[in-house]
Each structure stands twice: as structure tokens, then as C-alpha cells.
Amino acid sequence: MQSSLFSPAFAVWNQRQVLQQKRDRLQALFHAVNDPDSLTLSQWVHLYAAVLEFKPDLVLELGRNVGNSTCAFTEAANQIGECRVVSLCRSTNWQESTQARVSQIVPAEWFQPLDARVADILQVEAKALLGNSQRVLVLWDAHGFDVAEYMLGSLMPLLKDRQHIVLVHDITDLRYHAGQESYGDKPLWRAGNDDVYSDHTVRVVLGHLSSAVEQAIALVDFTSRNHLPLHSADESFYSELSQEQNNVLRDLLGDELFSRNAHWFWFSLNETNESALIHFPKFTSPELDRHLNKPASSSHLNTDQLNAEVALLKSTIAGMESSKFWKIRLLWLKLKKLLGIHQT
Ligand SMILES: C[S@@+](CC[C@H](N)C(=O)[O-])C[C@H]1O[C@@H](n2cnc3c(N)ncnc32)[C@H](O)[C@@H]1O
User: Fold this and answer.
1) What's the CATH number where 18 sits?
2) What is the mean pLDDT of residues 217-236?
3) Ligand 1 pocket residue status of 147, Cβ below 6 Å
4) Which of residues 255, 271, 287 is at a domain's end?
5) Of 61, 183, 194, 279, whose CB neighbour count within 10 A is largest?
6) Which tens digits make up the pLDDT trace of 176-215?
7) What pairing do the DSSP bridges indicate for beta strands 58-62 and 135-140?
8) What pLDDT was estimated at residue 327?
């Protein structure tokens, strides 16, 4: 279903002249990043065109890794001006290697719109992150239920009153990519983020969506509860452009830069009535969890953080065991045993 808010296919179509002029530059940046398994060059073009077309004042990138989307977004932000790119990731690949390779192609000022932070997304306060931006394009490309809870429970309520679109990577539209229906000889997908089968062959199929990452479930859940359209970029490319338009794009850009295969979806709360009641999941930051003296969910903690957590719990237990209450309780249990009392 075509949206009046945004169309992935028309973004590329409308920006085709710029894309043609930028062909060599995009190719050079793509090779400098050198991580084609995470994002193809044609997907770079989708993201780049999306920014040129939507003209956000803030691009928020959740999940950078080596930095394909980071680079495509920063190139676009330089092009449109008045646009910041805030990129959150726990990976240091960008700082340690990609940035140096990209620097050989671009001038130093190119990096100005980019704020590439090494951080745990769950620890970043959403309000401060959005600042006073009015028009936001989010790329949701960090996997897992924890980030999904942050995205849907912490960011979405704040995006509701701003113009925004959220692009979600790593979800395929089976209506245009048949062949993923078979289980093959693989077991059921049981949550996880394609880390067990790195060839992405263990997938969950939900209606026409196929994915190997947890956020697909959270996304379908959220958009279903809120009766929100969940748009398929594959559908946009395969159904909104005429054959003639497709041929023009292929002639202008070539097969490497133009492909209809997107493997991403998008949605926006701007497509609901302003007065509509939106249901958001509860998100509690691990920081707040700690303040409330509850052990934080361990799935996003690294080894150092886990060790610190274990040490804290051990000292709490030792403190409890040395307390008067604990000693009296142990005496009471001994006495009960001696007297043969069995109820606690
Ligand atoms: C699929 S990669 C991003 C790919 C990138 N967008 C691109 O275009 O190449 C996802 C990244 O998100 C990071 N990530 C996952 N959970 C995170 C979290 N809670 N905080 C920060 N980064 C996280 C992972 O470490 C990984 O580097």
C-alpha cells in the first residue's frame, strides 16, 4: 500500500539525477567501508535517497558496526545541509578503521554532521538524543528485543509529536523473494539474532515477513496493536514504479547501484490520527534498574559489567548473611530441626 508520507521507490526515482552524478563517489565510499555483507551498494542508494527525499534535520542510526549506513547517511547529510547524523553502536570499528579509510576520499569537513558514539543504546537517554529536532529519520539496525523495547518504549513516544520515519533493516518481503518458506533441514527459529546460523537460514515467517532477528517480532506486535501500516520497501520498489521507470533507473545507475531488492520495512506514527491512543511497551533503562536495586537484564552486559554485577550481588549476599536477622534465622532453623517442627 503506497503511503503519502514516504515512498522508498519514489525517493530513488526523484533523486535519480543526483544519484547518477554521485555514482563514482558512492562506489568509492562503499569500497572504503568494505563491508558488503552488511549492506549492498543498492541498499546504500536506498538509504541515501531516503535522506535526500525526506530531508530530516536528524538522522538517528541505531547500529553502525563497520559503518555502511553511517557513510551513506553522512554523505546525504552533507548534501542536504542542516542535518545531523547521530550514530549509536557499541562497536569501535568506525573509530578504529573505517574512518581512516573514508578520510582518504573525503575532506575533513565531511565528518562535521556526524556524531558517531560508542555506546550501549539502552543507556542513552532518548530525550537528550532527539534534542529539539523536528524531522527525524531513524535506521533501526541493532538487533534484539532489548533494543526493540528501547526503540518502541522510549523513542517512539517522543517521536510521536515530530515528523519521522523509522526504517527497519533485515526483514524480507516474501511476496517478492520466494524460496525462504522451506525449513530445509533446520530447526525452528527460537529467538536470537542470526548469530547461530550466520547464513541467515533459520528464519521466522510472519505473514509475508521473513526475518532472522528478534525485532521483527516486536515490530509486528507494535504495529498490529496500534493498527499501524507496516510498509515494505520491497513492495514499494516492485509495485510503485512502472517497467519503464525501472529501465531508466537501471540505465542511469547500473545493476550494482540499482536493485529493487530492499530487505527493509518502514513505519511512522505520523500515519495515525493525532488524537489516536498509541500503546507503547514499558522500557526501563538498565541504569534505572540498578537504582531500583534490581539486577539488570544480563543480555546486553559485557563480561566486565557481568563480573561487576556478580561482585555486587555477592557482597549483598555476604552482607545479608552477616546481619543479625540472618543469624537469628539460622538459629531458628536449627532449633526447629531439633524440635522436629517442619512448617516454615
Ligand atoms: C547489523 S549491525 C549494523 C550494520 C550497519 N547499520 C551497516 O549499515 O553496516 C548491528 C550493530 O548493532 C550493535 N548493537 C546491538 N545491540 C546494541 C546495543 N544495545 N547498543 C549498541 N550497539 C548495539 C552491534 O554490536 C552491531 O555492531
Assistant:
1) 3.40.50.150
2) 98
3) yes
4) 271
5) 61
6) 998 888 888 888 888 777 555 555 678 899 999 999 999 9
7) parallel
8) 62
Quick one: DSSP state of residue 169? E
Q: Identify the domain containing residue 39 by its residue range.
A: 8-271
- Asked if 75 and 107 touch (Cβ cutoff 8 Å), the reply is no
Residue type, 249: L
C-alpha cell at 84: 545531523
Gap between the Cα atoms of 39 and 59, Å rounded: 18
Q: Cβ(114) to ligand 1 under 6 A?
A: no
Which of 44, 91, 305 to mutate to test ligand 1, by most ligand atoms within 8 A of the CB atom?
Answer: 91
**Residue 171 contacts residue 212 (beta carbons within 8 Å):** no
Residue 316, C-alpha cell as written in the block = 549483598
Specify the residue for cell string 514516504.
Answer: 6
Alpha-carbon torsion, ordered 157, 158, 163, 165, to 10 deg: -60
* Tens-digit pLDDT profile for residues 64-106: 999 999 999 999 999 999 999 999 999 999 999 999 999 999 9
Cross-strand bridge partners of residue 118: 89
